[in-house]
């Protein structure tokens, strides 16, 4: 296995979970950098990826519990398909965050639409607020204090 490459969860679930948590942390840092540079759509994509990685890690941690509720739980943990994010998030108590992640995923592709037809985001500020709120949720679950400070420095005025 190459450095930085994820192993298969069925071979070493603990290592997989740690790798996905590290990936979530890296995606948060990239999202913050993109926000600072003004690339909100790209930051939205990274926030989505951060949440998706975190959700896969949390699902791995609660694999046995999810086994009865999710068909092909090992595949879902390994790939965390976008189509399963809402259901898995709900089972893990992260339904609001799942819906926010999916909205940001849509924003990544459609951008701002002042008329609200092609996107629920009618301004970049609204998208930035949601990006910051999703990143805050991810960082809280990760429990990474230095990352929490970084988030506060970038998103301080948008959180809440």
UniProtKB/TrEMBL annotation:
UniProt-listed InterPro entries: PaREP1
The protein's name in its UniProt record: PaREP1 family protein
């Amino acid at each position: 296995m190459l450095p930085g490459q994820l192993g298969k969860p069925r071979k070493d679930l603990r290592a997989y979970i740690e790798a996905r948590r590290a990936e979530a942390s890296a995606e948060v840092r990239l999202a913050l950098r993109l926000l600072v540079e003004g690339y909100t759509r790209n930051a939205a994509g990274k926030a989505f990826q951060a949440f998706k990685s975190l959700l896969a890690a949390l699902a791995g941690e609660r694999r046995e519990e999810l086994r009865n509720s999710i068909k092909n739980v090992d595949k879902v943990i390994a790939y965390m398909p976008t189509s399963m994010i809402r259901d898995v998030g709900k089972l893990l108590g992260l339904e609001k965050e799942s819906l926010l992640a999916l909205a940001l995923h849509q924003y990544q592709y459609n951008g701002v639409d002042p008329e609200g037809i092609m996107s629920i985001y009618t301004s970049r500020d609204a998208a930035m607020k949601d990006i910051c709120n999703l990143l805050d949720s991810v960082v809280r679950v990760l429990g990474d204090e230095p990352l929490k400070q970084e988030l506060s420095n970038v998103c301080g005025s948008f959180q809440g």
